[in-house]
Amino acid sequence: MTPPAGRPAGLSSKADVSHSLGSLSGQMEAPTTGSMEGSGAMAENPFEPYFESLRQQLEDQDPTFVIAVIVAIAVVVITCLFLKYTLTSKSVRSAVLLVGLCDSGKTLLFCRLLTGGFRRTQTSITDSSAPYKAKNDRGSTWTLIDLPGHDSLRPQYLDKFKSAARAIVFVVDSAIFQKEIRDVAEFLYVLLTDSVISTNAPNFVIACNKQDITMAKSAKLIQQQLEKELNTLRVTRLAALSAQDGSEAGSVYLGKKGKDFEFSQLPMKVEFLECSARGSKGEEGDADMESLERSLAKL
Fold this sequence. Notes:
By secondary structure, the protein is an alpha/beta fold.
């Protein structure tokens, strides 16, 4: 039978609404009654009064009104899901942090990645940021951020940006690495044992810069020596904490317990590569950083 004009086909009358609620009430009542039998407890469904009241109210309403309420609820739910998705998408980590000791060449790398050109730089005392378009088919764009390298400034800037890091590029001066190995390892230890960084596990690139200088150490040698230095540093740090009967707040254990430290033990991917922000031809030539650009293109 065709429902009366102006009345939806799926809900033809108040009686239908009442009948549907009655069925739902009966379904809920059945298991409750069955589970109570033999125990002397009351078998009546405790929700029966509420269903009865709701059914009575719906019987007094036009079915069109009921459907309008259902549609309104659906719209609210869909809106909430949309807002949740939008807010979540805005919080995606999209920063590439350039970190390292002073004079390691971070700022020149920053300029080269953005413009390709050479620029004389000086020690940074604040952060610098700009959009960086990766050289890949997707045309990915990240926020490249150059952080100060001075040890008194690092903590505050690291705390400011670490949660947004999609990748961290740790720049090492390969030419004087042997002289700075202890300082490099200590800074790396802070980064790699940070609980936020460990949880987010951003891509970690150790850029062995200044390869244009004759005495520069190779990426492979730097990796091997850093693993040894970090292993020693881990032992001394843990011994100091044990003596103080305390733990370092906001830090995680470096590597795997009972094993000598290796970068492969970390929760994030760590890549060592060689580059030269200055380039083999000096200021007039191009930088040698194709390996770094390829790495950033994979993010």
